[in-house]
Amino acid sequence: MSADVNTPVGWEQARELAYQAGLAASAGAERIPLTAGDGRTLAEPLRALTALPAFPTSSIDGWAVRGTGPWRPVGRVLAGGTPPPLTEDGVCVEIATGAMVPDGAAALIRVEESVTGADGRVTGTPRPMPEWRLPGEEAELGEELLPAGAAVDPAVIGVAATCGYETLTVRPEPRAALLVFGDELLTAGPPGAGRVRDSLGPQVPAWLRRYGATITAVSGPVKDTLDAHLDAIRSALDTADLVCTTGGTMHGPVDHLHPALAELGAEYLVNTVGVRPGFPMLLARVPGPDGRPRFLAGLPGNPQSAVIALISLVAPLLAGLAGRPFTGDLPLVEAAVPVPGRGRDTHLALAALDPTGRTATPVGHVGSAMLRGLANAHGFVVVRPGVKVAAGDLVPFLPLPLLPGERA
């Protein structure tokens, strides 16, 4: 693909291109312990290994009765046991919540709605609806509970455990490395004397982890020479499916990323995106040392722009690599105030949500080089090209990522 920076790809198209590229490169599966599944992605459907429940299960503490009362107690049924059947009318057994209902039982009576007489017999009236769960009420044997591509979270782990799973078959976690370009950056202490502190090296790995990646390496600042860039990229590609770089996406005198990609035989998937902030950013496919494609995402050097590149290109790419579903559809929120557009580009406006999560208010300190606004925001109001947002309008909202496995 051409590297022409004068023809940026539309933001929504760029996200779809990144996702499809990742999905095409997604492959493989691994079996892991059930308890290690949080944040992973199912590689095959999760099916019920047995009917759920597997046997008729009491929903109450009380009595399992047969025939008409009063009933003569003949035993007790606790959870975890297999009771003998009730074979004659006029008898009952004491039963605990979660216990298996014996064959022959006609009804269950709650202990608080029963009376035990002086003769030891039990009287009471069963409720109209049965007080037990029937086999297969939640799922039939072999029924698909979750499809391949579903994200595993604690609730999914619980469902799998209920079915009797001890392991899960999941997609391999995408591996990501970060290279910080710009040998003028400080890596410790406060900025000064013409040098700024690197903020992307500490934060980008955390964003990548929230999008489901395993971090294999964080390196830099990389020296501002073509040879140093090539060496760093080749080294990162040895262990990573995705290499993210910071800075160097333009064509200045010390911007060596484009020449390095040409030297590596890379194919541009996206080269600049019509989004503000965030210009310029890129995504390229690089031949891997084992013949399997790898990816390089070029993030701008300005911190907020780099984060926008992450959510625009890296997040959908990682979703594809993990085999997860991805959709460009976003939830709608109400704009509390007017939000300006950016002409022919999409505008991602940092915003905070009210306690209801239904109204978004833009935050301050949102320059490309600023992070204060990002630290006070929940995500971005998406203003599409040519759109003017007025107070009260419903607008798409792109939330910042949760921790792996968390529900929105």
From TrEMBL:
Q: Which reaction does it catalyse?
A: adenylyl-molybdopterin + molybdate = Mo-molybdopterin + AMP + H(+)
| A cellular component annotation (GO) from this entry | cytosol
**Metal-binding listed as a keyword:** yes
- Please give the cofactor(s) recorded in the UniProt entry for this protein: Mg(2+)
What PANTHER family does this protein's entry cite?
GEPHYRIN, MOLYBDOPTERIN BIOSYNTHESIS PROTEIN
Q: Specify the species.
A: Actinoplanes awajinensis subsp. mycoplanecinus
Query: What is the enzyme's class at the highest EC level?
Result: transferase
MoaB/Mog domain location: 177-320
Q: Which pathway features in its UniProt record?
A: Cofactor biosynthesis; molybdopterin biosynthesis
General function of this protein: Catalyzes the insertion of molybdate into adenylated molybdopterin with the concomitant release of AMP.
Q: Which GO terms describe its biological process?
A: Mo-molybdopterin cofactor biosynthetic process
EC numbers on record: 2.10.1.1
> Which family, according to the similarity comment?
Belongs to the MoeA family.
Q: Name one Pfam family in it.
A: MoeA_C
Q: Name one GO molecular function term.
A: metal ion binding
Q: Which UniProt keywords apply?
A: Magnesium, Metal-binding, Molybdenum, Molybdenum cofactor biosynthesis, Transferase
Task: Report what the protein is called.
Answer: Molybdopterin molybdenumtransferase
- List the SUPFAM superfamilies hit by this protein, alphabetically: MoeA C-terminal domain-like, MoeA N-terminal region -like, Molybdenum cofactor biosynthesis proteins
Q: Which InterPro entries match?
A: MoaB/Mog-like_dom_sf (IPR036425), MoaB/Mog_dom (IPR001453), MoeA-like (IPR038987), MoeA_C_domain_IV (IPR005111), MoeA_C_domain_IV_sf (IPR036688), MoeA_linker/N (IPR005110), MoeA_linker/N_sf (IPR036135)
Top-rank lineage group of the source organism? Bacteria
